[in-house]
Write a structure and sequence with these properties.
Layout: H1 2-25, E1 26-28, E2 40-42, H2 51-57, E3 60-74, E4 81-94, E5 100-109, E6 115-116, E7 130-136, E8 145-151, H3 156-168
Antiparallel strand pairs: 1-2, 3-4, 3-7, 4-5, 5-6, 7-8
Helix pairs in contact: 2-3
Length: about 190
């Protein structure tokens, strides 16, 4: 009898974990109290292969100087956390950012101190350095979430030229071609 109870408990736990995992990998793009979902899809982000893709998705792109790290927040659902940085806008390239912003980004905390990037074009913002950043609105992180960050310390003119061109030739947000299960309903955070 004890063996049967243990087996049933293990099976129930496996079912709960499987359901929780499936729910985590699936998102429903429906505001509360508005009826059935407009679209359901697996974890699939907009295409960000090119600078033009990144420029099209970002609401704001600017050359910034990082003033200071505001805080690091652990985030439970993935390794690492969110780094919030206070930045001064040196030159807006897209949108109308405020003169100073507090923005969040995903980072991995290093054992010896400091932070590591989570994606190749996603440098952790370090105080005293200049970057070109693209942001999207996210009220959880004050003035927005960093969609991309590239260094601008070594050659500010080249960085500004690169991203001005990307903004000029930006591509509207679209699903990554590897995603064949996405239904575009116009509810992207990049939709004005």
């Amino acid at each position: 009898m004890q063996h049967k109870r243990t087996t049933l408990t293990v099976l129930a736990a496996a079912a709960v974990l499987t359901t929780a995992g499936a729910a985590w990998y699936t998102t429903l793009d429906t505001p509360t109290h508005t009826g059935p979902p407009a679209a359901a899809h697996g974890v699939c982000l907009p295409a960000t292969d090119t600078d033009e893709d990144k420029a099209g998705y970002s609401h704001t792109i600017a050359v910034v100087t990082v003033d200071r790290t505001v805080e690091y927040r652990e985030e439970g659902e993935a390794p690492g956390g969110a780094l919030l940085s206070k930045v001064t806008v040196v030159e807006p390239l897209k949108g109308t950012p405020p003169a100073t912003m507090t923005i969040g980004q995903s980072v991995l905390r290093q054992t010896g101190g400091g932070y590591a990037k989570t994606k190749p074009a996603y440098l952790p913002l370090e105080p005293g350095h200049r970057y070109v950043v693209g942001t999207v609105p996210d009220p959880n992180y004050d003035d927005g979430w960093v969609w991309f960050a590239t260094a601008a310390d070594d050659d500010l003119t080249a960085a500004t030229t690169r991203w001005t061109r990307a903004v000029t030739h930006q591509i509207a947000p679209h699903p990554d071609p590897a995603c064949n299960d996405v239904i575009d309903d116009g509810s992207s955070p990049a939709t004005p």
